[in-house]
Fold:
Amino acid sequence: MTERVATTNRATTGIHEGCLISAAQLDVAEVSRILSLANELESMGFKKRAKVLEGRRAALLFYESSTRTRTSFELAAKQLGATTTLVSDKSSSIEKGESLKDTGLTLRALGAECIILRHPSSGAAEMLARFTGLPVLNAGDGWHEHPTQSLLDLRTMLSHGLGGELGAAGQVDSRTLAGKTIAIVGDILHSRVARSNALLLPKLGARVVLCGPVPLLPDAAEEIGPGVSVERDFIATLQQSDVVMMLRIQKERLAGLELDLAEYIAGYQLDEERLKKYAPKALVLHPGPIIRGLELTAEVADGPQSAIEEQVHNGVAIRMAALARALGGKKVGKKKKKDDDSKPVEKKGKGERK
Ligand code: CP
Structure:
């Protein structure tokens, strides 16, 4: 194990070059590589795919609850032939007070070659990367970032034709989303998903409109980066949107904020009437978990404009690409030979809405 750590390929920044900590670290060429790799891995026969990370070891280190991210990372690693182990704050020595650093070093000593981390503190993923020298994949750190979520959101938009044929094929550039407006609505303040999307999508030419009331969306949010603006009026936001991404109201993070939920629902809930009247062609996204009856209604969540389940589905391909990128998987990103075996994984909803 010591030998493997010593030979770990480190980037000049001091963290492993396979890390995925922030959407900000990705230039458009790298985004294109990840999207193309996701397509390649998804369409590979399952036997060939299971050799990509055969025998490699990934640890999932989760200090917060998760359904989508944890499961999709685990399924992605297993489809690539890697073994996984889950360490949760609820059933490990973290409960006894073991630090993030010591937990990371312990996982490394046990043979983990990559750590997928979810943590309530912003910056935890980068710290873990520096402590261990391992590739760390940020599965959500506090209010900071959730980069694989923004990549799977982008893949979902592209599969609905927002970036044309090239975009759907995973080939993107700085004009792929030119002229498109993506609204992100709700609890922006606490949202790592909003931040990662606001950093990622303008790199492809999109306008990102952040919408919500002052307690959940400070004016300073416009400073996230170029191409990002703040709009308080939900109807005006809907009228200009090609994509409406609704966010969960994070009740667990509302303490001390002056927010009346009934007023919030009156002003910002996405219901069928508003959607049909003001954004009848927009794609509706939500990173989940959704709270039906709060930020959106059940009719909208289950309706024809919703691509929420497709987002979840796209998580597996994106996370396969993130893992292969992190661990330098075999036989990926190269010209395909005639494939070995069987059926590729079913690809849901490509170019069509449910
Ligand atoms: N989107 C997302 O991060 O969901 P989970 O919290 O279920 O992983």
Q: What stands out?
A: The CA atoms of residues 38 and 318 lie 5 Å apart. The two ends are 47 Å apart (CA to CA).
